[in-house]
Specification:
This is diphosphomevalonate decarboxylase. It is a single chain. This protein is an alpha+beta fold. It has two domains: 2-169, Ribosomal Protein S5, domain 2 (2-Layer Sandwich), CATH 3.30.230; 172-312, Alpha-Beta Plaits (2-Layer Sandwich). The chain is 37% helix and 26% strand. It has eight helices and 14 strands. It is globular. The N and C termini lie close together (6 Å). The structure holds (3R)-3-hydroxy-3-methyl-5-(phosphonooxy)pentanoic acid (PMV). (3R)-3-hydroxy-3-methyl-5-(phosphonooxy)pentanoic acid binds next to helix 2 and helix 4.
């Protein structure tokens, strides 16, 4: 039996599209910040008496599509380890409230680490990153803490994440505005596929990411939070332009998403270096220097309510918490 804990991450240069759906090889590199506030704790135990994998998430039994996805992932671990038993999987999401931010990144990074441990595999962090990738692309990066780069690679061996700065030594912070915590209508999996296949802007996106990766790494080396925020914001909006330019077009924006964006612009107009990013859902994340936290809370709280604002610092990589 092995229990592992992994934190979620938010991309500053987004991953949006696969090149190989089976191996989960991405079209582009990406770069993220692991967060300390949101994490999953997952326990895995293989048991020869089971006739199927028994999975619970937050105490609820998982069946149907969710179960099939986790069983397919465990099949990879069974294949790697030669262990043919089914497993008990118990996972708990630790989020400040039912946030809709319980991300597949922390879930699959924790599952990969716990399942590999329980199956007796001795994997390096790079190998764990490659394994987590098979569950969910963003999970590739959640093996590491802090600022992390995922090299798209050209095959299973070369597509893994690596830390750029595991112990973040400058005061970057991220605040999540919980706009809407319901399940998204278009999954990231089908959304990105549709963008790759139908958006005429997809080739331009590939070049955007090449340029943004370079500029973002320089901004990180310079510990330049306004430039990091600026690149992350521009990159996120160009990713969301892929959704609007897909056929059929769709969007992850809600009405309140636009309110949040307007408030961040107003903060900037008033001289505070706040920037926003968004993933495959309507919640907005604000990037800023922690010294500006109070000014940002003062601006957002009257509109959204303090309970819908979650402040997060850079977080750690995956850990085994008992064995
Ligand atoms: O790998 P997934 O299904 O969690 O997709 C991640 C997609 C984004 O969150 C929008 C971008 C990213 O790089 O995390």
């Amino acid at each position: 039996m092995t229990t592992a804990r992994a934190h979620t991450n938010i991309a500053l240069v987004k991953y949006w599209g696969k090149r190989d759906r089976q191996l989960m090889l991405p079209q582009t590199d990406s770069l993220s910040l692991t967060l300390n506030e949101f994490y999953a704790t997952t326990k895995v135990e293989f048991d020869p008496s089971l006739t199927a994998d028994q999975i619970t998430i937050d105490g609820q039994a998982v069946s149907g599509k969710g179960q099939a996805k986790i069983t397919a992932f465990l099949d990879i671990v069974r294949q790697l380890s030669g262990k043919n038993d089914f497993a008990y999987v118990q996972s708990t999401n630790h989020v400040p409230m039912a946030a809709g931010l319980a991300s597949s990144a922390s879930a699959f990074a924790a599952l990969a680490t716990a399942a590999a441990g329980a199956a007796g595999l001795q994997l390096s962090r790079r190998e764990l990153s490659r394994l987590a990738r098979r569950g969910s692309g963003s999970a590739t990066r959640s093996i590491y803490g802090g600022l992390v780069e995922w090299h798209r690679g050209t095959d299973d061996l070369s597509s893994f994440a690596e830390p750029i700065m595991e112990q973040v030594d400058f005061p970057i912070e991220m605040l999540a505005i919980l706009v809407n915590t319901k399940k998204k209508k278009v999954s990231s999996r089908s959304g990105m596929q549709s963008s790759v296949e139908t958006s005429p802007y997809y080739p331009a996106w590939r070049q955007v990411v090449v340029d943004d990766m370079k500029a973002m790494k320089k901004a990180i080396a310079d510990r330049d939070i306004p430039t990091i925020g600026h690149i992350a914001e521009e990159n996120a909006m160009r990713m969301h332009a892929l959704t609007l330019s897909s056929d059929p077009a769709y969007t992850y924006f809600d009405a309140e998403t636009l309110t949040a964006i307007r408030l961040v612009h107003e903060l900037r107009d008033s001289g505070i270096n706040a920037y926003y990013t968004m993933d495959a859902g309507p919640n907005v994340k604000v990037i800023y220097d922690r010294h500006d936290r109070q000014a940002i809370l003062d601006k957002l709280s009257p509109v959204f309510g303090r309970e819908r604002l979650v402040v997060s610092q850079p977080g750690p990589g995956v850990t085994i918490i008992d064995d």
